[in-house]
Amino acid sequence: MLAKVASATIVGIDAVEVGVEVDISAGLPGMVVVGLPDTAVQESKERVKAAIKNTGYLFPLRKIVVNLTPADLRKEGPSFDLPISLGVLAATEQVQVPGDLLFLGELSLDGSLRGVSGVLPIAATAKQLGKRGVVVPLTNWEEAKVVEDIAVYAFAHLQDVLHFLQDPHTYQEPVKAGSVNASVVHHSYDLREVKGQSHARRALEIAAAGGHNLIFVGPPGAGKTLLARCLPSILPPMTPEEALETTRIYSVAGLLQGKGLITERPFRSPHHSASGPSLVGGGSFPRPGEISLASNGVLFLDELTEFKRDVLDFLRQPLEDGFVTISRTKQSVAFPAKFMLVASTNPCPCGYWGDAVQPCTCSPKQREQYWARLSGPLMDRIDLQVLVTRLKAEEITSTATGEPSAVVRERVTQARQIQQARFAQEAAIRCNAQMQTIHLRQFCPLDDRGRSLLEGAIRRLGLSARASDRVLKVARTIADLAHSPSIQAHHVAEAIQYRTLDRFNS
Ligand SMILES: [Zn+2]
Question: What's residue 180's pLDDT?
């Protein structure tokens, strides 16, 4: 007898329907799974067998063939345990499985259901396919509920799923555990704690307002890391579209841990020993890396020069395109990677070049080699280059607190609203930093004074075309923060100040 159960698998950050067909016939007892399954799916045989027996149902001692369709799509992970076990029970007429529900979940040997990754995109696909609902493990409940207008049934045990299928009216919604009010997110770091550093604070505000990449350069103890960690506290709230996109990425990466919609912008801070694949994504079934997990948020690279240069080179294309493509023989997938890059570094190997107190002990050759480690093309893609100096003694002992993040965030949010109106017709652009060269003529016209300032800077600092575009975008953001419809000469002048390293390098 043949049974069919609907399920799905993940491709990139999307889902594709997978049909689970189970045929039981006379023959040597045993179970085979066909249709490009990976190891985890193959191992599902043992889990399914044990779970069915331990739930008190009959596991047929006959020949069982499980076919996953479409056959040319590779299937991965343990999420087919539930649909396969339901297929076996349906093929032996122990339960009836409706075709308008989609099932996924990993089984323990005792029949309890364990959470799986990718539930959000799968629920979204089920809705597109016109399914009535999805049946998921209890831990994935809030994640599946993010998708509106589709029924979500969540269970802790195979036994509960079978009861539900026999008598759907008995289903009770789980009680939502400890819901978090998204509007009162507590940030661990606040600009209130940052003393002095008015130049760096201003740069951080501009970066947040326009979504610009930024690097802090300064001696150890100047507060570079603290400044960077304050960034999430001044970023504008996520739009519903951004929240859904980021949650989808975390769902595929299996990092939602029982939570629903992510409403706080991510802040990812990978260690400098991070490998290329962990940073940009990879694996035989491609998984999102740090740059995708930082999407619509911040990727913070502390001590940038400690990262391997070839690893940093992987960042160049995503920084330009806003996505990363991972190619495999069977399939090629694209993950979103719209992140703000924030980096910090010492100015030289000893850390004190340019410091007012401690002299630098490096040779010019050492400094040159140090800067060579930061590839020019990566620096070209950083809009704001900011020197952070050590605090003076009177600044350290001062009891005055800085302007709190909440106040800065209000200005940033207003500047973002101006940008949302500006880019209402441009689906791919959410903030000034995401403008391409073709948009600059339309959105960043300069008057004569502004243009001559920029031309002077191009000559004096040897700015590349890409770097000069970045000056324009930053000037646009500075004007937005000032609620100025046009870009004034002093906005351009301030933007040019943030090209410190072009001078450093030359
Ligand atoms: Zn030095």
Answer: 45
